[in-house]
Amino acid sequence: GPAPAAAHPGPVVAAAGRLARGKRFDLLIEAFREVAARHPDWRLRIYGGGAERARLAELVERLGLRDAVRLMGPCTPIEPEFARASIVASASDAESFGMTLVEAMRCGVPVVSTDCPLGPAEIVEDGATGRLVPPGDSGALAAALLELIEDEPLRRSMAAAARERSRAYDPAPIALRYERLFEDLEASRAARSRQRRAARVRSAALAVPRRLLAPLGRSGRPTSRGTPEQGGGR
């Protein structure tokens, strides 16, 4: 199950994923510069490994965020780390589904995400379970983070709503729905198979030549046309 939300989550924004260009951790780091300037006690922790690590580390140094931003490396499972955070952020240009967001919400953590194609808008209800911002806009990302950081009652209400919303993605009910779907498909396939067999039997019966049935008398036994009883004899 999901990690229980921390009673008093720390002043932490967490993010997780492969350190690849499309995940736009660079955008998130740039957005966090504004957060760190206004709230120097807050931290950004990025979990994951990948080809962009060196470039991101260099960006952190260049922006003077060494104390504020930490590249934590890969972490599995991620839920305990999310549960200790106050916000989970995603700056991706595209998401296949957005499992990171679901994992965060299951931990009772509100989400700030780019409204990129496919995943986030299906998962995050903007203003209720988190915030959605335009992709590629570090200013909008910073503003959304600051909104949640500076409004604790809003953050708490979003956290509760996020946990409730995440139930739609719980593995057990989803597995049960799939199981029922497969059972329905199997029953439908079996019914079609029975119908096909019955149709083949009917077709075979109709294909029996009538001449084979004609010589049968009322008794069901073959009769000979040449017998005296039928007037066929001489």
From TrEMBL:
Species of origin: Streptomyces boncukensis
Sequence ranges assigned to domain Glycosyl transferase family in this UniProt record: 10-165
Pfam families for this protein: Glycos_transf_1
Gene3D superfamilies, per the entry: Glycogen Phosphorylase B (3.40.50.2000)
Official protein name in the record: D-inositol 3-phosphate glycosyltransferase
Entry keyword set: Transferase
InterPro entries (alphabetical): Glyco_trans_1 (IPR001296)
GO molecular function: glycosyltransferase activity
Annotated region (Disordered), positions in chain: 212-234
